[in-house]
Specification:
Rossmann fold; 4 domains; phosphoglycerate dehydrogenase activity
Length: about 525
């Protein structure tokens, strides 16, 4: 199955109409069916190549299993915790998101929440509707001079920080990936978490929900905070431990909380929502016309680009595939796959350690997409599952195949400028080397024997090793071909190693029976690339 043969896309949630329009203009058939039950989704997804969701549709392993033709799940938004990414990867289904689309909306809501906490605006508004005039009850605080801790300094965290700096807040923060130098450029002083807790008046979280961020605020971290600390969570339910938050609110250790997200949505347990010092929204972070229009537009454009082979962006689980769409890398991926298949045929095994070595400066970064391509070639013959660049590395590990990669800036002549890829099966003499000429992958070397005229690696090929002095193999082969009504398209022979030569032959169609050829050669195999 070639990636990019997308025909039908299901949109399972209500999205901006521009999403459907862009997909249709890109030549795709679109079905919009918001609010499907699980059973209906399982039925509808069977014949779809693409699925577009927001956060409500749960794309479980069961849904992915039912989706026989599915190639891509597009999330109009950032978090993909409603998609079983591992099950998608295993099945070779791409998952993509639109990480920038709703950043500003989420950041603005967070800033609004901080202001509401400082001045209890929602509570005061509600009391007015009840006919009260409680001027004494709602004594607030100024934000100017207060310290805001921003945990997670990605797109949303930094937008919140710069906006709250305009209110005169001091912004400190923490992020495991973004360096202190970078965060200093947008005015956030990075500190270890242990130093953050006792310093801040407000805490806002902007991390994904991961095992490492679940319960980031808990009983022990609340205990280290200033009494009366104010907490905002507009990211994901569960980053702030809900039980610990309720206990901290009840004891006064936490002075107020603003929640847009919950562990369970909608929350069945209403204790937090009903607490007088909690303000909450029904997950409205991305609910602006602008964000919905942006996310709908971005995900539609990403899927059209994928369908038309223009490129891949926003990919969560198939970084190797993003490279496969670039015209200059396509032939190298084809080459790596062909070398993997040849190695598997020559070595007659799929287990063990395979070393991929890239030679030449132009291939410096290539290992990360050539490794899954080699794994894909090695697995192509044996597995029942469909092997793609998305799941090749995972399936290789499960098959007992370890693919590692090394790089050397120097490639030997005549390939010093274009580069070479060398694939070896460790502990065996099996090694194949190839390069790309123009846009054609070619074979340079097999098990130490060099082809002066590099042999093209495409179409049906027959490769054999025989005594250099014995030309009967070629005569037998031409006889077999004429009997089968086939043609010999090209023939290349290698240098002689230990009195033997390798030959690679391009055929118009694979031969069904090689029994006449086998007695005349040391080894022979066919492959279709």
């Amino acid at each position: 199955r070639a990636l990019g043969k997308l025909q039908k896309v299901l949109i399972s949630e209500s999205l901006d109409p521009c999403c459907r329009e862009i997909l249709q203009a890109g030549g795709l058939r679109v079905q919009e069916k918001p609010g499907l039950s699980k059973e209906e989704l399982l039925r509808e997804i069977r014949d779809c190549d693409g699925l577009i969701v927001r956060s409500a549709t749960k794309v479980t392993a069961e849904v992915l299993e039912a989706a026989e033709r599915l190639q891509v799940v597009g999330r109009a938004g950032t978090g993909v915790d409603n998609v079983d990414v591992e099950a998608a990867t295993r099945k070779g289904v791409l998952v993509m998101n639109t990480p920038t689309g709703n950043s500003l909306s989420a950041a603005e809501l967070t800033c609004g929440m901080i202001l509401c906490l400082a001045r209890q605006i929602p509570q005061a508004a509600a009391s007015m509707k009840e006919g009260k005039w409680d001027r004494k009850k709602y004594m607030g605080m100024e934000l100017n001079g207060k310290t805001l801790a921003v945990l997670g300094l990605g797109r949303i965290g930094r937008e919140v920080a710069t906006r709250m700096q305009a209110f005169g807040m001091k912004t400190i923060g923490y992020d495991p990936i973004i360096t202190p130098d970078v965060s200093a450029t947008f005015g956030v002083e990075q500190l270890p978490l242990e130093q953050i807790w006792p310093r801040c008046d407000f805490i806002t979280v902007h991390t994904p929900l991961l095992p490492s961020t679940t319960g980031l605020l808990n009983d022990s971290t609340f205990a280290k905070c200033r009494r009366g600390v104010q907490v905002v969570n507009c990211a994901r339910g569960g980053i702030v431990d809900e039980g610990a938050l309720l206990r901290a609110l009840q004891s006064g250790q936490c002075g107020g909380a603003a929640l847009d997200v919950f562990t369970q949505e909608p929350p069945k347990d209403r204790d937090l929502v009903n607490h007088p010092n909690v303000i909450s929204c029904p997950h409205l972070g991305a609910s602006t016309r602008e964000a919905q229009s942006r996310c709908g537009k971005e995900i539609a454009m990403q899927i059209v680009d994928m369908a038309t082979g223009k490129g891949l962006t926003g990919v969560v689980n198939g970084q190797a595939l993003s490279k496969a769409f670039a015209p200059q890398t396509k032939p190298w991926i084809t080459l790596a796959r062909a070398l993997g298949t040849m190695l598997c045929m020559a070595g007659k095994q799929v287990q063990g350690s395979v070393q991929v070595c890239t030679l030449g400066t132009s291939l410096k970064e290539a290992g990360n997409y050539l490794t899954p391509a080699v794994a894909m070639g090695m697995l192509a013959g044996g597995t029942q599952k469909e092997v793609t660049l998305v799941n090749a590395t995972l399936l290789a590990q499960e098959a007992g195949l370890k693919v590692t990669t090394t790089h050397n800036d120097v490639a030997p002549e005549p390939d010093s400028s274009t580069g070479l890829v060398q694939v070896s099966l460790q502990g065996t003499p099996h090694q194949v080397t190839g390069t790309v000429q123009g846009s054609t992958p070619v074979l340079r070397q097999i098990n130490g024997a060099t082809f002066q005229q590099p042999a093209p690696l495409s179409g049906p090929l027959l490769i054999y090793r025989a005594k250099a002095s014995d030309t009967s193999a070629l005569a037998t082969l031409t006889g077999l071909l004429s009997k089968a009504g086939g043609q010999l398209l090209f023939y290349h022979s290698s240098s002689t190693v230990a009195g033997e030569q390798w030959s690679i032959v391009g055929l118009s169609a694979p031969l069904s029976n090689l029994s006449e050829l086998k007695p005349r050669v040391t080894e022979v195999f066919q492959l279709h690339l």
